[in-house]
Amino acid sequence: MTGFGEDAAYPVRWQTTVEGRSLHVMVRRQAINLLLDNDSPSFTFDPAGRLHGAFVEGRNYRRSLDNRMLAKWSEQDGTRSTRRRRWLSADEARAVVDLAYQMAARAAGLAGDAPAAIRSALEAVTGWTWPRLVADRRWFERIYTPVGILPPDQYLALVLQATHGCSHNACTFCTFYQDIPFRIKSPDEFRSHVAGVLDFFGPALAMRRSIFLADANALVVPMPRLLALLDVLADGLESEIRETGKPGAAATISEPSPLGPDALPDPTFPHLPPATCSLPPATLPLFAFIDAFHVERKSVADWQELRGRGLQRVYIGMESGHDPLLRWLNKPGNAVDVLDAVQTLKTAGVAVSVIVMSGVGGAAFADAHVRDSVALLNAMPLGWGDLIYISEFREQPGSDYVRMAAQNDVRALAPDELHAQTRMLRNEYRAPDPNQPPQFSAYNIDEFIY
């Protein structure tokens, strides 16, 4: 990996004037920012020079690593501000990309007397074009199967796919892994994948602040095989540090909070407390999904060992505390399994995030869903460092849920009813220790982008 200057003290700022407007460039280890008049338009690039995000004329744009672009903005609807989002066509995305790199080129042309770190960063940025990003997408797709979903606080994770697909893959509401057979990689396959990922990201590893072990529930891997995969992961990242002489991802993934708003437009990441587990130098902090049913297949001692290997937080799709609804959703396990899973993980010192779906089951299940979900959440030993996500339910076209809801006349909640249910789930929660509560956060699957 190459940096922006070995002796640079970050952040490095530089300013010039373009057509009477102030053009600002800021370089940090994890991002490069260009903005006019400290406002708009503004662009964020990763340290390799790929466009990451933009803010133009009141709209936020976020570019994925497979070169798609999501636009987000707010509209006033009477007294309420409504959040809108839309995936751009290739032509629309290219217009945003071209604008970003044109501004970078203008900055580079004026940067003859700028600090070395500024010049190096602009050189990295101006090496990119739309055709190069298209080719970069093809590279990305050779390394990864589609990254279906991540928790919002992990959108800046370095995703490493120890498994493909979902071991259950039968929840009626989910289509994320519908066409991906579940498979556990061998150590050799995973070693090749990790090497490919590190090569793809290069200096952009500095933007990735954690490691997410994918796919949907990678922690169901039997313990001996899982430890062998974690050995591969540790060896691969340590080799990267040895070969480059730079800590790369290892210097940034332990940071507990996301990049600030000046670096990433419209951040949606929860502000989490510092990690509480003490990690040996050879390990890196890890995050992953698992379904509640499989947590108990590992002992508390197993989870403690995984914690010692760097596992910081486990994400469980609880969805509901109402068992009849869980059966209707074809979730593995029941409410007691979720409670047991959380207790086991907390006993092992692993932080937990539980994900609840507001509005799932529609009007037919609404009252029981809220009552039993709140009761289950209130029974959990959650505290500071844990997360409760509330995800407002969205029907996924082609899912069994859509067919079943139509057959059984399960009416979806109206927007006002949905928002009201979200408020009830949150307002009726009571933390075991009011002085050290878990954090609530929204989980909008429509805004996921990697």
Short summary:
With 450 residues, the chain is an alpha/beta fold. It contains twelve helices and 17 strands. The protein has an eight-stranded antiparallel sheet with strand order 1-2-3-4-5-6-7-8, with helices on one face.
Structure report:
By secondary structure, the chain is an alpha/beta fold. The protein folds into two domains: 12-128; 144-447, Alpha-Beta Horseshoe (pyruvate-formate lyase- activating enzyme). The protein is built from twelve helices and 17 strands. The strands form three sheets. An eight-stranded antiparallel sheet has the order 1-2-3-4-5-6-7-8, with helices on one face. Residues 245-283 have low confidence and may be disordered.
Topology overview:
Elements: E1 12-18, E2 21-28, E3 31-36, E4 42-45, E5 51-56, E6 59-63, E7 69-77, E8 80-87, H1 90-109, H2 116-126, H3 130-143, E9 157-161, E10 163-164, E11 183-184, H4 187-201, E12 210-214, H5 223-244, E13 286-289, H6 292-295, H7 300-308, E14 311-319, H8 323-328, H9 335-347, E15 351-358, H10 362-379, E16 387-392, H11 400-407, H12 415-427, E17 439-442
Parallel strand pairs: 9-12, 12-13, 13-14, 14-15, 15-16, 16-17
Antiparallel strand pairs: 1-2, 2-3, 3-4, 4-5, 5-6, 6-7, 7-8, 10-11
Helix pairs in contact: 1-2, 4-5, 10-12
